Amino acid sequence: MHSFFNFLNRIFPAQVVFAHCDIPCGIYTPEPAQTAALTVIRMIEKLQEAEAGDAHNIARFTQAKEEHAQKCKQELLILWTDYFKEEHLLVFPNLHDIFWKATKLCSKNKQEVSMEAAQALKQAVAEIAEMFHKVEAAKK
Fold first, then answer.
1. Is residue 128 a part of any domain in this protein?
2. What CATH number did the domain enclosing 128 receive?
3. Using CA atoms, how far apart are residues 61 and 55, in angstroms rounded to an integer?
4. Domain residue limits at 110
5. I need a labelling partner for 105 at 20 to 30 A (CA). Which of 26, 41, 75, 113 fits?
6. Along the 140 residues of the chain, how does pLDDT read in single tens digits?
7. pTM, whole model, 2 decimals?
8. What's the total number of domains in the chain?
């Protein structure tokens, strides 16, 4: 079987393929990060409303807050490392700083129950979404 594939490879050699991400799907959107940031805010609201003796729901809200802060971070990292390219730095010279601070806010929201940090995350993700939509609009 191995010799058969070697034979095929000599007749039809594999072509080198270059892709912008691990799987070149070309489907990117900031919406999952935005939804995750909004969920962090909602879970903080639920935690602030929870009764002191309601340990079960407090644990659930905390877990959901931390999961969505991590999801937000993952989605931002995909946009940062796979979607945005070097040429976008010409349009957004502070792109790396904005993403770095946003991902740090994701970590802060995992560590704390702070509405201020959650609102800052929402704002940072909104700024990234705005940059994304400007790049998309320029493609058309």
1. yes
2. 1.20.120.400
3. 10
4. 30-139
5. 26
6. 667 666 767 777 766 544 445 566 778 999 999 999 999 999 999 999 999 889 999 999 999 999 999 999 999 999 999 999 999 999 999 999 999 999 999 999 999 999 999 999 999 999 999 999 999 999 88
7. 0.82
8. 1
